[in-house]
Amino acid sequence: MYRQIAFGMMMCMGCAASFGQDRDTIKVDRMEALKEIVVKGDLPNTRLKGNAMITRVQGTPLASTGTLAEMLVKVPGMTGSEDSPEVIGKGTPLIYVNGRLVRDDSELKRLRSEDVRDVEVINNPGAKYDATVRAVVRIRTKKLQGEGFGLDLSFLDSQDLRYGMNTPNTKLGMNYRKDGVDVFGSVWYSRLNFHQYSTLEETTYTSKVFHQNGPYTMTWKNNQIVYTLGTNWQIDANNSVGVRANVTHYLNGTDMVIYDEDVEENGVLVDHLYSEQTSRNSQPLGWLTNTYYNGKAGKLGIDFNFDFMKNGLDTDRENQETSLVNSDFIRSKSGTDSHLYAAKLVLTYPVWKGDVSAGTEMTFVNRHNTYSIDKSFIADTDADIDENNIAAFAEYECDFDKAGTASVGMRYEHTLFDYDDCLNNDKLHRSMDEFFPTASYSVSLSKVQTALSYSIKTQRPDFFAMDDAVTYISRYSQQAGNSTLLNERIHDLTLNVSWRWITFSASYEKCKHAITQWSFLADNDAVLIKHVNLDRPINTLEV
What we know:
globular; 6-stranded mixed β-sheet; mainly beta; Maltoporin, Chain A; 2 domains; 3 helices
């Protein structure tokens, strides 16, 4: 891509012009009777910077994609769907917008692609990020221009041509800007109407061979309104502060799961099961607030974020089962109430040819879970769960000019998990201290940009994977966790190469104590699905 700028007759003293990137800068101390300047530069839409791929959106076809969620899956290095964007080979990423962590996925559908400046995809994050994070996407929006009052109204409807379902949403937003202060608010409405049609085939080998085969249908329907209010203050060129709050109102929600399958035992048809499971969901108002400060004190850079989130879900579930053996009607109820407090502080200071970054990150989560069912062989639960993570990290990045850029880092994490089920006197306490080193090196070889990075990651089992309580799925299927699970330990070596508009990524991973699900035969001849650790490491190459 070439950009040509022509100037007519001018007289000036000390001029500078910047085009696209920092490196495209022309400085002229004195010009007299200058008739024309022609500037040519190669400005790629995607470039490597360290272990990150940065894609420019502003001024490209990506800017007219639609919502941010629709745009992300079209960015180099990304895949998936607008409901679940992923980084190729790394899975679901953490997503940041202007340095703020996105904790509400619906925000990706409330933002417009035309407001985005660039997208940074990091497929092997360093010590600044949680050790469970496999990938990070950082989005920077365009700086709004002008002052005064503005309104924004948009409507979007996605229609499925095969099944006829549609998911409309609309947004009304406002913004007032004066003397570096922005006050903004919006109301966003969305209706979800989603269907999944597939075939379920499952074979379980224990003392008997159970084979289940048949159609499997899932339907989700709900309506929600999200209210947003906040303010930003650009104190000066180096300092800004702001606060925002989202309130989510779920109007109603219904989920339905249908099994229609043959059940064979040792090759002989023993039953035909039709199961229709209907769940009616209700949720209190969900709260999400963020407070941030980004600035400098002399040479010291300061980046601080504090988040609070509160949400819950109450579900009444009815399961109507019909089979050759007998029919049954099962009722169950479940409820979840969650609170999250999170804070992150990053300090940056220039040292020699680079920057030292150090900081801390803390996350405190409290949940109260209840579950009851009218089956005597499955116990009710009433549990409190606390999950706390306190981390400290340090990282040094150094620029050696033409020799490239290198970084090294270390992250320490203290995790605490407490589970207390008062109905069953079931308690679980787990405390761990772990260290996670990281390193990366990037260099430009002529027009080829390369980056190599190494890190150690982990995957910790969530509450549902460690909960030993049995959950009813159907007469032939039950599910339970495993409180003895070990954390996964993942060694990740990633190579990124970029040339012109072509990008290439390859990743080698070695995972110890990999967590998976395994089927066992329960006492009542049902299949019990549990989480287990694999005995041998798994080696994976992603290209």
